Amino acid sequence: MTDVLAIADHRRGELRDVSYELVSAGRDLADATGGDLHLAVISGTVDAFAEKLNREGVDVVHTVDYGEEFNHDVYTQAIVQLCDEVSPQFLLAPNSVNGLDYAPAVANRLDLPLVTDTVDLEVDGDTLVATREMYGGKVETTVELTGERAAVTIRGAEWPGASGTGEATIEAFDATIDEDAIGSSVTGFEEVAGGDVDIGDADVLVSVGRGIEEEENLELIHELADALGATVSSSRPIVDAGWLPKNRQVGQSGKVVTPDVYIAIGISGAVQHVAGMKGSDTIVAINTDPNAPIMDIADYAIHDDLFDVVPALIGEFQ
Amino acid sequence: MMKVLVTVKEVATVEDEFEIEGTAIDERYLGADLNEWDDYAIEEAVQIAEAIGEDEVDVVTVTIGPEDCEQTIRQALAKGADRAIRVWDDTLEDADLLDVGAKTAILEAVVEDEDPDLVLSGVQSGDDSFMATGVSLADAVDFQWAAVVNSLDLDVEGDTASVRRELEGGVEELTDVSLPAVLTIQTGINEPRYASLRGIRMAQRKELTVQRLADLGLDSSVVEGDLRLTGMSVPESESDATVFAGGPEETASELAAILREKGVGQ
C-alpha cells in the first residue's frame, strides 16, 4: 500500500492542464513512498486520453470507458472500485470544479481523511505534510495527515506539467456502474462570456475590484479607461454584485487575458483572479494594502488609496 | 411542507496587518462575519420560500459554532430563515481543527433529525476554505448533489433541481439533480438582501436551538480526525515590483510616464 492513484481531469473532449500536473505531484509522492504511480481516466475517449497521459513517471493508466462527459456518480463509483483494486496510499484529484464534485464523496465513502487545495506536498516518514492557504491566501498553513491513507486535491498551476513519453501499461478497468445510483444528468453546456466586448482582445485593461466599494464609484474607472483608450474589466465581486456583466470578469471562472498592460485597481489578487491575468506583459497594481497578493506579480505598484491616485492619473492623460 | 436546510458558518476575518501566534492568527487581528457564500445560500433558500409560499416552506439554518456566533445566526434569521440550530459543546471547543470528516458527521446527524428536502451550503468558507463539506455530507446522507451552483430552478412537483454549475473558463454545465439533494452555492447566484428592521426585530423571537454532540447521538470520536494543523506563516512576498512612493500626484505622474513609454494613451 505505497502506491499513488491520480485522477485525470478532462472536459468536452480535452484533457485539462492539471492532469499533467497531477502526474508530477503524484510521481513525487510515489518516489517518497517507494510505490507506483497509477493514473485513472474516466469517461470520454479514454484510449486517446491514456496515450496522452503516458508521460514520464507514469507506471499504469487505468481507463474506465463509460459515458462521454463528467458525471460525479460515475466517477465516485469508478474511483471507489479502483481504490479497492489499487489500494493506493494517496488518492490525488484536481481541486477543479469537477474534482470538488466527486473527491469529497469518494473520501467519505472510503473513510479517508481529505485535504483540499494543496499547493505543496511532502512525505515525512509516515506523515503526509500538505501546504495550503487560509483566509483567502493571507496565510499559508501546514497540515499533517497521520493516517495510513489520504485523499488530496491539488491546486492547478502549482506543479509543473509532466513532459516526455512514459512507459506506462494501459489497462482497461471494468468498473461496475450502478445506473440506479446516478441521480444527476448533464443536459448541456453554455459559454457565458459572450456579449458586446471581448476583454481577451484588449491591449490595455483597466481592471477594478472590491476596493471600489460602491457601484457609483465605477464612473471613475470608466473615466480612466476612456483617458487611456483602455477596456474595463473586473474581478469576481464586481460581477457578483451585478455592477458589470459576466463578460468583463477576469479569472478562473471568467476569462483568461494577456494584454500588453493590465492595471489592477483595488484588486487584492486572489488566486482565482491571478490565474486569469498573470500572463499580461506589464502588470500595474494600485492598492492600499502593500501585502496584497497582487503585489507578488505586479511590475509596478502604488500602495495608496485608489480614490486619490486614479483622479490624479486621469489628470495626467487629459 | 417542504424543508430547506442551510448550513451557515461564522468565519474569522483578518485585518490587513496581523501577527501569528503559534498556529493561529493573534486574536487581536481577527473579526467575525457571516461566511460570504452562505449569505447567498440563505438568500436562495428565502427566495425559494417566497416563490412557493412562506407557509409551505420551512427554512432552517444549522451552524457549528460557539455562543459568540449567535449574532451571525440572527442575521440569517433576520433575512428570512424560520429557525436555527447551533451545535456546540466542550469537545468542539477544545478541538483545534474541525476537518471535513468531523463537520460531515455532525451535519449528517442534523440532517437525519431534520429530514430536509434540500440542503444549501456555501461552496466554501472564507477562512479555512476546504470546499468539500457539502458534497461529503450529501454522500453521507445518501442525497444527490451538485457542486458550485450559480443558478437554481426548483421543480418541486418533479422532485428535481435544474442547476447550472460554474465550471472554469466561463463555461456553465446545465444539470438536473433529483431531490433530496445538497447543492453548494456559488457567489453571484442572487443578490443577498440586507435585513430589514422588521426582520431584525422578528429574528430575536425566532427559535434558536442549541445541541450538544450527545444530543445528536455523537461522541467525542467525531473530532478525532487524522488531520492536524501544525504550522502557519505569512507567504514570503515574491514581489519585485517597482513601487512608486510619495503623494498621489507624484505617484500618478511617475506611473503615467511608464504607461506612455508602453504606448498607452497615445
Automatic annotation (TrEMBL), chain A:
Residues that span the membrane, as ranges: none
A molecular-function term among this protein's GO annotations: flavin adenine dinucleotide binding
Coiled-coil regions, chain positions: none
Listed InterPro entries: DHS-like_NAD/FAD-binding_dom (IPR029035), ETF_a/b_N (IPR014730), ETF_a/FixB (IPR001308), ETF_alpha_N (IPR033947), ETF_asu_C (IPR014731), Rossmann-like_a/b/a_fold (IPR014729)
A GO BP entry: fatty acid beta-oxidation using acyl-CoA dehydrogenase
All copies of domain Electron transfer flavoprotein alpha/beta-subunit N-terminal, residue ranges: 4-186
Protein species of origin: Natronoglomus mannanivorans
Gene3D superfamilies: HUPs, TPP-binding domain
Protein name: Electron transfer flavoprotein subunit alpha/FixB family protein
Family per similarity comment: Belongs to the ETF alpha-subunit/FixB family.
